[in-house]
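Quick start: what a row looks like.
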Amino acid sequence: MSATDYHHIVVTDDTAAAGVARSELQPILQKLLTALEIREKYMHRSLQRFPRSTAQVLREVSGRSWTEEQDVQPEFTCYPADVLKALSVEGLPDDLSYGLEMRNGIITLLDSAGNLYTPASLHYPDHSEYTKDLKSVLELISNGPLKTYCNQRLKILSSKFQLHLLVNEKKEFVDLQVASHSDFYNVGKVDTHIHAAACMNQKKLLQFICKTYERDSERVVQEAGGKKTTLRELFQCLKLNPDNLDIDALNMHADRETFQRFDRFNEKYNPVGANELRALYLKTNNYINGEYFATLVKGFSDSLDDSSNQFAELRLSIYGSRPTEWEDLANWFTRQEVCSPKLRWMIQVPRI
């Protein structure tokens, strides 16, 4: 079945339908182009992909020339062996002759002569350029006519799509049956905004806690005030018996009581309400160097390996509580070898 067999919906003048007078349309569209240009600039500087068709339109509107080289973006597909080789610190000198300095609230990299160092492949904006772009974006966000236009346009697009479904849904379903290996289960899927400490489900975490207690009950897992504590002693101190633990006792499910209550939501990351177990099982920096947490993350990545088209984006937090926090997190990542071709990582800085 060819595409010509589909019914096409054409709205002759959807700008008028958006509730904006033609006299107001030109400045509104100019603001939208400004927003797209800012987005394109910062996506390219952070080595992210920008839609090719949108970039071509922006160049046509602005009169800039288009070259194929401008659209080339680096690939970020890595496999464990390549990643481990790239992360290796063998053979590096003790001092790379670089320094860090705070300038205008931004940590800058300096070379051995004390001058600003910028890698040739990256083009960081200076402070004045960034603040200028930020001011432009904030002005766009608070612009009343622009917000009205965008809201109406989204409603029009949604209505056009619903109308398309009404007249073409059955024909598309027939096409899907004809095309092999193109159903939902064969499409690549990425789970985003997953906190690494919540990547496993409650059952897997409970099973892992019970397993480690059976296997490592006499292992030293904590040290406070010069006193070392074994796993068995830790559970005894918390008055917990792993044999009696269940999912309800674990109490890590975000229910209705956590909606709009970040304090309650944050408490759900404590197994059995014990902060000591969170530090042991769900933290990268502890007495056992985050070994248990790494094992849980590896178990999650192994489950993704069973599916050829499922990926995930995990988040780790930097709280700014210690000068060595970045280095400690990097050491955990390389020491425990948690990299996987199915995982990408985000570093988040919580508002607290």
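That is the whole record. The chain has 13 helices and seven strands. Residues 144-178 form the longest helix (35 residues).
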